[in-house]
Amino acid sequence: MHEIWITKLFNDYLAGAGNAALALVGQPAQSRPWANYITMELLVVVLMMALFALIRTQLSADNPGKLQHCFELIYEFLRGQAEDFVGAHSGKYVPYFGTIFLFVLFANLIGIIPGLESPTMFPYVTAGCALATFGYYNAMGVSALGLGYLKHFVGPSWALAILMIPIEIVSNLARPLSLTVRLYANMFAGEQVTTVFLGLTKFVVPVVFMGLHVFVALLQAYIFALLTMVYVGGAVSHEH
Q1: What is the pLDDT of residues 30-66, one digit of tens each?
Q2: Which end of the chain is more exposed for a tag (fewer CB within 10 A), N or C?
Q3: φ/ψ (deg, to 5) at 180
């Protein structure tokens, strides 16, 4: 498998740490344990932490900087969307919505940088994000409704429970698969198109497709966050 430069560094100097991580999940040691999608995920997390640490040192109510303005707009947008899809008490869920949106967005966009790859073009990464959302909205449903959360699986009446319960279970289990495939397929296709045209020409055409890549990256991050809001809204709803 082709290694990008950051993965090569990890495998050359941190192979021991990689094999230690593999041992924790019962996997055998490998000569080069680090894969591109893992190192790129770690790079995205480090970049996000560094960016937010920088923004935190510059926070100001009287004289906010450009970065603060930018992220305040993102926060207000996500909060407004959360109120629409979750309800008046959506504020406590916004941190997760913002986290998943920004992680997916950064992971999508980092592939534009020469020498790097979008980790979301690998199904392992998108599946991880999807499973995190699956676990989150179910946990929030149980937290908000207790055992009453199970009524969501019964349907509008107990008479239909035998029919509705298997349908609802399958529907819920299909959600992480849908989230995984949608994000992975779009980012993989976008990455391949951009790579092909970069190989064919150097200037005008690649710029057009890189612009399209940015648009797809933003759109897919928004869709992922939006579906997360829809699932959370359905899980915590007191109306049956």
Answers
A1: 999 999 999 999 999 999 999 999 999 888 888 888 8
A2: N
A3: -65, -55
